[in-house]
Design goal:
heterodimer; A: alpha/beta; Rossmann fold; Alpha-Beta Plaits; 2 domains; 14 strands; elongated; B: alpha/beta; D-Maltodextrin-Binding Protein, domain 2; four-stranded mixed sheet; 4 strands; disordered N terminus
Chain lengths: 303, 399
Amino acid sequence: MATDRALEIDGISKRYGDVVALQDLTVDIRAGELFGFVGRNGAGKTTTMRVVLGVLTPDAGVVRWLGVPLTFEARRHIGYMPEERGLYPKMRVAEQLMYLGELHGMAGAEAREAALGWLDRFGLADRRDADLQALSLGNQQRVQLAAALVFGPDVLVLDEPFAGLDPVAVDVMAGVLRERATAGVPVIFSSHELELVERLCDRVGIIDHGRMVACGTVDELRAGGRERRWIDSPAAPSDWEIGLPGVRLLRADGSRRLFELDPGVDDQALLQAALATGPVREFALVEPSLGEVFRSVIGEAGA
Amino acid sequence: MSTRPRSLGGTRPLPTTVLVARREVRMRLRSRVFVGGTIVMTVLVVVGIAAASLLGGKTNLARVGFSGESQALEPTFSASATALGASIVVSDIADVAAGQAQVTAGTLDVLVTGSATAPTAVAKTAVASNIESALSLAAEAARLSDAGLSPEAIASAMALVPVHLLQPPSPRDNENVFASMGLGILLWIALGIYGSQVAQGVVEEKATRIMEILLATIQPSRLLAGKVIGIGLVGLLQLTIVGAAALIAVHVTNVASIPALAVSSILGDIFWFLLGFLLYATAYSAVASLVSRQEEVQGAIAPIAIFQIVGYLLMYATLANPTSPLVIVCSLLPPFAPIVMAVRMASSDVPSWQVGLAVALTTASIVGLTWMAGRVYANAAPRIGTRVRFMDAFRGPRP
């Protein structure tokens, strides 16, 4: 079932005049998966999401759900949180959610129940009759997420859902996304908060200049990057040249040095070279953070 | 809370267009603009009608007091005055000095003193000519009676010359022009208010960025149709409330002889509001969908608003001369017909072929504009940000 219920983004391209926004971008988001979409500003994350929602028409490529190209009717079952938040400022919160639920095809009573349920979940039960504009920005953002969830979507597409949230709200939002994914809903979201993405996502896609430059689990991405080792060799001279091909010195901190190894380079050769200078007090594998992976991948892609 | 069980073809309670229209109606009925606007319009209309009725009664009513011997003139004076078309109230005045004080105070218009054969009329500034004539006739009748003529002979001698008018003026003409103007202004205001509400409603959805969420679940044409229908219904309701208040006021004050305040004229006003609203709302929605910020709305709709202003000016031309060729031609042309034809119909008789032609041309324009507006709106609505050029939106998505 898991592979059947996938959102397939297949080879989409989009140009704005001379500007290439998306270039043959392909990625699958599987059911039950939290997929994080990272990339610099203007890399194409928002454009991709807008194409999925049908707000933009791609120049080439197709988006499929359950193996068939997305129709307008199928798109109505996608929960969407656009980059630029948008709800009616002067409409009551609960009424607004009910309205959106009904627009997505719910019956009135059902929409009401769902709207009140989500407001309760986000701790906004006492604000249900307040106009949206009377809420704090953080609370407006919760309502925005509720708007994407209220009709029980088959797919969730969220553009920067964590931007501007306090740590407690981030936890609530992360919990809800994880819960939806566990319920079998493919969840795709973009974020600049790489630590959060690293902690939360099953898979991560790194997009740059409209292309998917890396995609996989955080561990897979780390494996694709260069390995690093800290070495503490007090006897080594301060101008010590390691002299090994594929090994670069990144940083020196007293007698501690950080080296980066090209793929395939044997770290034992590095250790032996270090031992040749005298005692080695530390030889440590450094797990690159997603941020480091991101920078190295984006750097390779040619910034 | 969990994903609700759903089948794609399951019970879908309400079509999306109905949902959009229902939201518009709910939100607007609740707004202060609607409640306040309806109250103000209703009060103005009722006060206007009441004033028309009071003014209409006051112009002819003369209070005439007779003192002493002159009181014998009262029956003949009343008869003559009525024959001369004056409305009078006759009273007995016991004391001449007190009567003069009443004239000075303005509670009495004319005080008649002296004998029946040689009365004197005392007034503050002037005596209406028909009152003066009636008094002269009454005194003359008294003198003829003194001279020994029989009442029949007197009546015969004093008979008024019958006047036959080929084109009798209606005493209500002025009131009718004012009432037609009132209807016209009301219609013009309603068209302005609800037309610009459509424009602002369209831009609101782009400005608040909810457009992107809406367009992911509803086709642009249905969103636009729901908005126009919803706002139109609110306008219709407001005009119906004001119109009903006007009809009740007309009934109570009994000024129904003013043609422009007849049921048919008020229904005509509402009918032309519907056509005019659909015409202007579709045009407004098309140009408003090109911009993304509320501040740009006025500039965007200005080229169309000019037609409305010209229509307003033509309304005065219509009242001044309802049969001039300019007025007749403009009353047939769609951008002006809703106001000019409505005012013509209220203030005078319009040949039915002209009404039919105006309705047909306006309806055809609405159909054409709806097609154009639907196209422009569908292409421009998702493009939030800088202003979209009209022809770009009309031609469709860029290659």
